[in-house]
Amino acid sequence: MASFCKGFVETNGSKFELNGSPFLFNGFNSYWMLSVASDPNERYKVSNVFREASASGLVVCRTWAFSDGGYQALQISPGVYNENIFKTLDFVVGEAKKYGVKLILSLVNNYNDYGGRPQYVQWARDAGAPVNNDDDFYTNPIIKDYYKNHVKSVLTRINTITGIAYKDEAAIMAWELMNEPRCQVDYSGNTITTWVREMAPFVKSIDSSHLLGVGMEGFYGDSIAERKQYNPGYQVGTDFITNNQINEIDFTTIHAYPDSWLAGQSNDAQMEFMQRWMTSHWDDSATILKKPIVFGEFGKSRKDPGYRITARDSFMNSVYSSIYNLAQKGGTFGGGLVWQLLDEGMDSYDDGYGIVLSKDASTRSIISQQSDKMTALEHSLNLSQE
Known about the structure:
By secondary structure, the protein is of the alpha/beta class. 41% of the residues lie in helices and 15% in strands.
């Protein structure tokens, strides 16, 4: 555990490495940690989830390093921070470290939950900037400076619990520029590519120790027209190829919610889409981009028509099997992060995808089995290198 916590995850071609050895993982999302931990009476829920996740072999957690404007905001207004909420983020990082879990931290939201892109645009509008819509986030110089300031504020933050600057904290695996960037005014992906080309080097100029991802869902854009057949019938303004070709982006990500994206289609059709989605992005990551890939979000909602726990477990088994099988082919597929783990009594945060490890025994078993398989595969890759 000690060497795991001390080392920084790195990339070597299209593989993740930790302390010079192949790094494969099973992980989870718990976006809510900063929000819940801001209430001292609720903070134990963060600890519970890290403890139970760690016990199930989950060693990577993706969560938010932002809360812009609104109630209990981290960033109250551009460049103005609530120190108590920053201490809350310190706590989340400290607890991850305590339980041997590495963090992937997203720096802003695409959506208006917890402020996000719309809040940045509103701040600029309030300051008298000539903005038209939320997509000005990617092009307006004032908004870009707001974002850069937030990046710098988080990365240079010295944790009040550990005494370590975030940019020097090995418990952090990676940063993401944004959670699920999208751009309605330019479906080609070019606008976001230009933004990433500016922001990725900026992040690396402050923090060269950590990995960096865009944080995207994986939608294809216009750069390779035939790839668009793998999209679920539409584009969102990203281009999986060009957005990830920027040198300072270290790994690729995909998300997938076929129950939402292909609503009304059969489970078989949704699963076939999922297989194509995973395989095409794995192939592109390995051959075109030559970078490792993380399945950053996936799940099956209990709000789906005809939902049964067995259907979710079957879905997760299929996804996990695909991750494992693709990881076997050279390690490019580093791992997957299920959406999402909750503690008991967190119904207000449950979007239908919530998993409570202490209550969902069959799902916990499937998660633990995947953790064991990825650990065993990592071990075999390590042996083959010796």
